[in-house]
């Protein structure tokens, strides 16, 4: 089934394929052609991610199945479908979802299993803020780490988009204590307001020592069962020290560097530690689709919408929107993220399309 679809659409493009934020412009591109088990969505809003900036600069190698148009998350309504198999979407349904690219546009085509129905409790902007951050956090905490109720978690870069999502999902899935690191007392306070139990300022103290003191961990005993890390080399030794026996660490980025000068790896053996790295966009469409469906099965969205309170009544879920821009102001949105001004999500609305 389908509705009247134009052959051309508006889209955010990059002059000469790569360049600074001033190279971004609103141009035109062919509307994607559907293949079997795909849907076409008319976009209302999309999220801005740091990978978009890297792609714009020509520093992010695209997966072979990705379109050149930026953007990996969106909200909108379905305007066409083709030979759907398992999930029977209908034209007009309001949805949001994950994509391998192409969300900086008026229309996007995606596999039917990579979208979710937009609940009435969420508006277009809130829905567009969920897919990349929350599915990445869900993947780290549940799919890879297998976080269990009562286990303690350490989330580095707690005030980042994925960090905030991880705090809320860890709380929603019943984590024991949730610890974070951040670069200012303001960010630590914010993280604690949305569900973290304690934060450590990595700029003013040795976070690993402070965590051990706070939890009373002696020697290599460790304080947490799961660590979600974005920093890499500078935190590696502290992470090994902080993990309990049978602890798991997921590495999602190397913001502080990827080369470790000196480390004692004996703890990997003696504490039976498991370390795994992951990137989401480079995964196959099938993997990402399964991740979305896993999020559905484990009621991740319901947990997020309705929140999760601990015994002290602390709110566990809060969609954090930093700022909303029109796509006509896409340069300013990229500049805002590049200046590291955001705490929470930057969302772009597709105005006048």
Highlighted features:
353 residues; alpha/beta; Rossmann fold; 2 domains; 7-stranded mixed sheet; Enoyl reductase (ER) domain-containing protein; oxidoreductase activity, acting on NAD(P)H; NADP
Structural class of the helix and strand makeup? alpha/beta
CATH class of the largest domain: Alpha Beta
Q: Architecture of the largest domain, CATH level 2?
A: Alpha-Beta Complex
Arithmetic mean pLDDT: 91
Number of helices: 11
Uncertain runs with pLDDT below 50, 5 residues or more? 308-316
Q: What share of the residues does DSSP label as strand, in percent?
A: 25-35%
**H/E element order:** EEEHEEEEHHEHEHEHEHEHEHHEHE
**Biggest β-sheet strands, sense, barrel:** 7 strands, mixed
Total number of distinct structural domains:
2
Number of strands: 15
Helix coverage percent: 25-40%
Amino- and carboxy-terminal Cα gap: 22 Å
Shape designation: globular
CATH fold type of the largest domain: Quinone Oxidoreductase, Chain A, domain 1
